[in-house]
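Annex B, item 7. Sequence and structure tokens for protein A, then protein B.
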Amino acid sequence: MIESAALSPLVQATILVGVILVQAVALYVGYGALERVATPLIDTITDAR
């Protein structure tokens, strides 16, 4: 595990905010890609009835 206790609280807080921001962007992009793939598939399934 990465040791960050030696860093100042300001640096720790900045790293935490950065990690959360990167995580949010990754989820946004991932869900966008999933929606592009899943929407035509769901439309095909529902139109088949």
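Protein B:
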Amino acid sequence: MNRVYFIQVATLLSIHRILLSQTAQRVSIHSKNTSRTKAKAWIFGTEFMHSFPTTFLVYGEPYLLKERFHSSLSVIALSQALCGLCVALGAFVGGHLSHRYRPILAIQIGILGSLLAVLLEIGLHKSGGLPAVLISFGLFSFAQVVVWPGIESGLMDGENHSTVQHFVSLFNLTWSFGTAFAFLLATPLMSRFGLNVIFTLPALFYFINLILTEFGRRRNLRTEIVSNISLDEDGEIDPDEIKSAILTPNERAAFRWMGWLSNPFAYVAIQVIVTFNPYLQERLGLSFGAASVWCSLWFYVRTVTFELLRRWTWWHYKWKLLCCVFLAAIISFGGIVMAPNLVVLLFSQLVFGMCVGLIYQSSLYYSMAGSEAQGEHGGFHESFIGIGIMLGPLLVYFGSKLFPGNGGASVAIVTLLMGIGLIGLIRLGSQIKHQI
């Protein structure tokens, strides 16, 4: 156990070093001036400082409800569904703030709201009952997602297709590294320092991040809006601009909707996996600390996939590839939640991590590339994620009520729903006549 744990920590640190080197290299190439370079670096730092504590709390909540309140699977599922509903609403607000005003406003409001909501949760967990705790968790879920449309539009405003591809990948690498690291550390830290660390550590992160963003605002370190340039770093025509120009406006919209449709279904599967994790831990006989090690492989695979997709652009505007990857995600999802042993669990996570990486990358890339409303499109991207976060646990809840004691029924319902989603993707893809 300890050996595997330290191997995974070393893997994460290696990914982090790659991320830092790639960020420095690319920012050096693409920076138009010193101010813009600093703004990009500052936004990436803010992103990591937000993703780590947010994941730490959101994915630690099921374990906390089970350990402190002895909550059933249905209650845990409802708490995650509440989180998804609030995420969908908060993302819409964040997208509006970012588009109508400034990205920095959405970022600061979201971080401040997250800090206040966590402090409220600390008080309610000491003196309140389960309903009060769930309400405070909903407020936190709403506030934390307001940040993301601001970060997305702040990074990608005014970029052409080539640089959007790069910054989308670096954005995904940053938050996925923070997510994976938080998921890896959540249960060991709760085992070592007690359940209250799930609140105190995020509160500390949000407080520091709030100071950093205010410092950045006062120094006017924000992304400058620059004119779209259809040239890459070598001064050549951007090939992705040519690909996009071949498509009609309706076809580009179809790709955007394919991304928005596939990504929430991926999050349906992700949230069901998260909801089932405490019970998967029991079925496989894993300790409390070992669960976060063995159940987190797909996080690392997704992070590596983001880096591979940054280097490889062939997947752009390939709707049949997206449909095939979505089908593989359905199959590997079933392999994770119904895994009879660790071998099946790890192999299924390997496939699932690659699939959800490409699906997420597609959703955000098609939202941002060539868009004149990146703040709003980033808000839609995050809102659809919230819908997926809400639907997954709700399906588990209704499955546990309709078929008590039969976890496979919930998995079958989710698989059926994702199958319907695949049909929807194929119908959208069939509207695209130009093959690129």
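Comment on protein B: Residues 31-222+238-429 form a domain with the Growth Hormone; Chain: A; fold (CATH 1.20.1250.20).
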